[in-house]
Amino acid sequence: MGATRHLLDEDAIPTHWYNVVADLDSLPPPPLHPGTGQPVGPDDLSPIFPMALIGQEVSADRWVEIPAEVRAAYALWRPTPLHRAERLERAMGTRSKIFYKYEGGSPSGSHKPNTAVAQAYYNAQEGVRRIATETGAGQWGSALAFACTMFGIECKVYMVRASFDSKPYRKTMIATWGGECVASPSADTAAGRAILEKDPSTTGSLGIAISEAVEDAATREDTKYALGSVLNHVLLHQTVIGQEAKAQLAEAGATPDVVIGCAGGGSNFAGISFPFVADAAAGTGPKIIAAEPAACPTLTRGHYAYDFGDTAHMAPLLPMYTLGHGFVPDAIHAGGLRYHGMSPLVSHLVHEGVVEARAYHQNECFAEAVRFARAEGIIPAPEPSHALRALREEVEAADAEGVERTFLVHLCGHGNFDMSAYEAYLSGTLVDHELPQDELDRAAEDLEGLPALPA
Ligand SMILES: Cc1ncc(COP(=O)(O)O)c(C=O)c1O
Fold first, then answer.
1. Lesser CB count within 10 Å: N end or C end of the chain?
2. Cα angle at 342 between 336 and 346, to 5 degrees?
3. How far is the CA of 336 from the centre of ligand 1 (A)?
4. pLDDT digits over 193-242, tens only?
């Protein structure tokens, strides 16, 4: 029997982030200014982001050095383990090999601190005193609160109402690290007040929470904005995950045939998969699968188009798969996957056929999460339960074909704060939301009149 956990030494924490842009034959078109419709330049972004991150956003360098202070903070939980899931293999009755990379051992319980620490560091370097952000599941908000406390910065988090109500302890976690967390939409911003006036009982959305956080940062001298997903620099920071996984698989003597992650805005998915993308594009690498919720099917039923990154048209127009910036997904428990859009880089790779996308309902995902917990012990966050569902489909396909494959699946966070979701699943009261086409068609009307993507 081989090792159950493949552990790297601290000095194996990657020294550089990997920039997939350097290895792509074609690139997504540029983001456009929400007011002028012209390509966004550094001057447009400097009120809300520090210059170092703006530089990374547009960088074409293959490798970007990780500052020593960031690597030192990473050492609090990195390298993260790669597990061989032999118990899960037995529970599934397959001869295929399953490996999972586990990011739930970070201080806040997910992959999010990989970029939070980097973003807080660069803000601190440029003298920023306060950062505003949004959070869906609460994982990103807690990660940023943790990172801000590492670098002596104040942190304000706008948390989507649906998750704020179902996961009250995320707020306490944020407060423990010295941050402030309010439910979004909130009365603290003009964007929030406008939405509350129209619909006081709204469950909120990531698009709305982003509008609030961007407004907060744009209207205060001492404050910048941080985003936990979607943008190129965020995805870049997450590539420590896939780089470590590659080294760990090599140590295990394994080569993955299939790499699977869940996709909300695309950052954990990019983290695990981008280091494999150049090989996949050349036809020599693994099949790469992005799993998303059927209740928010951005990649599988969305439009590839320019759309606003937020609801109130404050964020740039991004070239991406989108359901329309006004789309408010049902209050599924995978709060981190309730985003109307998707990272331009991940969208581009799906559009080019390098990455495949699949959508699943939440009950079938929780069934896999529970199977996983009973075999491997760790209780997955609702978001990566979508990756586990895709894994099951792929394992069954291999078994049906009579072949043994090697799978790498990303377990990007634990679900220890998600007991209300598990309670609903286990008691049989969890609802699968069908999403009628006419609802999607109505949401897509938001795209009318926006600039078209170049042919
Ligand atoms: C555990 C977890 N997984 C996935 C996501 C989705 O974000 P992304 O697609 O950027 O990884 C989130 C977002 O909050 C999350 O908390």
1. C
2. 115
3. 5
4. 999 999 999 999 888 999 999 999 999 999 999 999 999 999 999 999 99
